[in-house]
Specification:
By secondary structure, the protein is of the alpha/beta class. It has eight helices and nine strands.
């Protein structure tokens, strides 16, 4: 896997947002331990949030998509396409609903340098074909769809051990066209195979020819990153 060392990003004049998405009580809202001045915190949700919360509620029931997609699909759309929902920002930091923000996020964004996309490596696996076995064993998605998806990728020539990412935290530049195109392709492919986004992203990086040296690896194990804490496992969702 390629990792690129680059100068720190100057964040002084950037508009940055941190956001999460909770649809239908899938997770409970977790307050950040540190809320930085100059950063806006948003929760896209259809539930009530506590008075005085750091999170600013964006009511997803007002979106047309709320009635078009399943809760899981809507969550993935907002997760994958931040520039559609937060167009006025330069960078966004997405965090899953089960992630507690323990530290300042500005230094994490600054470490991106000139990489417009940041995520964690998967902590134990580096291959979607190995991940597929785990997904099927734990029944995290429809087995028939997972098998069809990975068979199609194998037929297309996608190699084993190409890489696997933990997508609980995603940092993206909203002004970079290559990231926008990758995220749009990710969403389209997810809707083609609505299984696990971990299975889809590595294939899209390979298929689109996205330069992996432009992916900033936030860490090699999200559970060892002092800036973030996974408070609980997600509930097992029914396949979309």
């Amino acid at each position: 896997m390629l990792e690129k060392l680059s100068p720190r990003l100057d964040t002084a004049n950037l508009r940055m947002a941190v956001y999460t998405c909770i649809v239908g009580h899938y997770d409970s809202l977790i307050e950040p331990r540190i809320a930085e001045p100059g950063i806006d915190y948003y929760v896209f949700t259809d539930i009530d949030i506590p008075a005085g919360s750091v999170w600013k509620k964006i009511d997803i029931t007002q979106f047309d998509e709320y009635h078009e997609f399943s809760p899981t699909q809507l969550n993935r759309r907002i997760k994958m396409l931040p520039f559609c929902y937060l167009p006025d920002y330069d960078y966004s930091v997405y965090v899953d609903g089960n992630i507690e923000i323990e530290g300042a996020v500005t230094p994490v964004v600054a470490e991106m340098g000139d990489c417009p996309f940041g995520t964690h490596y998967h902590r134990t696996r580096d291959c979607i074909y190995v991940e597929k076995v785990r997904v099927n064993y734990l029944r995290k998605a429809d087995k028939e769809t997972v098998d069809k998806q990975t068979a199609a990728y194998r037929e297309a020539g996608f190699p084993r051990h190409y890489g696997l990412y933990e997508n609980s935290i995603l940092i993206r530049s909203h002004r970079d066209e290559s990231v926008r195109h990758l995220m749009e392709a990710w969403w389209e492919e997810y809707m083609r195979y609505p299984t696990r986004d971990q299975l889809t992203l590595p294939y899209l990086i390979w298929k689109t020819g996205y330069d992996r040296s432009r992916i900033h690896i936030i860490g090699k194990n999200i559970d060892r990153n002092p800036n973030f804490k996974r408070t609980h496992s997600h509930k097992t969702a029914k396949p979309s």
